[in-house]
């Protein structure tokens, strides 16, 4: 069994909220086959307690905007490892030192991950030589524009 579609959507929403507040090493682990109490873990790190709290606040706010509220919050006062329990998804925001020490990814390494790509970051390999994003048009437009990276044919041939 894999995580439900609702759990996947919630996890992706939480992961993006964390990434938007500059969380590092954001990942999602599908623990549905191993745990009966939740479907997915969202893991995120921050270099200091203030950043941990900022990430936690953003995750809670973003999910609240979608009608999703945590049933439990732990570790908020210390802001070293904060756990937000949304039932189907548990968000772990850890200080970088705790993340390295407890290594939850290693603990759950037998579980599949749910792919997460930060929408705010440019995709690798998607930049043109000028540093601009590639056009959204079709390859035929590259020929018309005289794009030197095209397959060698020029417009008018």
Task: Give a written overview of the molecule.
The protein is of the alpha+beta class and 157 residues long. It has a domain at 5-107: Beta Polymerase, domain 2 (2-Layer Sandwich), CATH 3.30.460. The chain is built from 5 helices and 5 strands; from the N terminus they run αββαβββααα. It has helices at residues 5-20, 49-65, 96-102, 104-107, 139-144; strands at 24-30, 40-46, 72-74, 81-85, 89-95. A 5-stranded mixed beta sheet has the order 1-2-5-4-3. The longest helix has 17 residues, at 49-65. It starts with a helix and ends in a 13-residue tail after the last helix. Mean pLDDT is 84; it is low at 125-157.
Average pLDDT: 84
Q: What CATH architecture of the domain at 5-107 would you give?
A: 2-Layer Sandwich
- Contiguous uncertain segments of 5+ residues: 125-157
CA-based shape: globular
Cα distance spanning the termini: 55 Å
Q: In order across it, which strands form the biggest sheet?
A: 1-2-5-4-3
Quick recap of the structure?
This protein has 157 residues and is an alpha+beta fold.
Could you name the key traits of this structure?
alpha+beta; 5 strands; 5-stranded mixed beta sheet; 157 residues; disordered C terminus; single chain; Beta Polymerase, domain 2; 18% strand; 5 helices
Fold blueprint:
Elements: H1 5-20, E1 24-30, E2 40-46, H2 49-65, E3 72-74, E4 81-85, E5 89-95, H3 96-102, H4 104-107, H5 139-144
Parallel strand pairs: 2-5
Antiparallel strand pairs: 1-2, 3-4, 4-5
Helix pairs in contact: 1-2
């Amino acid at each position: 069994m894999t995580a439900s579609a609702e759990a996947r959507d919630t996890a992706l929403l939480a992961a993006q909220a964390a990434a938007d507040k500059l969380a590092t090493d954001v990942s999602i682990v599908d623990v549905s086959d191993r745990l009966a109490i939740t479907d997915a873990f969202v893991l995120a790190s921050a270099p200091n307690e203030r950043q941990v709290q900022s990430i936690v606040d953003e995750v809670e706010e973003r999910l609240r905007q979608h009608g999703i509220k945590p049933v439990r919050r732990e570790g908020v006062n210390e802001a070293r490892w904060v756990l937000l329990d949304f039932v189907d998804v548990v968000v772990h925001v850890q200080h970088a030192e705790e993340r390295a020490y407890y290594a939850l990814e290693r603990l759950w390494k037998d579980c599949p991950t749910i792919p997460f790509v930060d929408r705010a970051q440019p995709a690798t390999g998607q930049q043109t030589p000028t540093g601009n994003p590639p056009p959204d048009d079709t390859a035929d437009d590259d020929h018309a524009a005289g794009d030197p990276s095209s397959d060698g044919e020029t417009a008018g041939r």
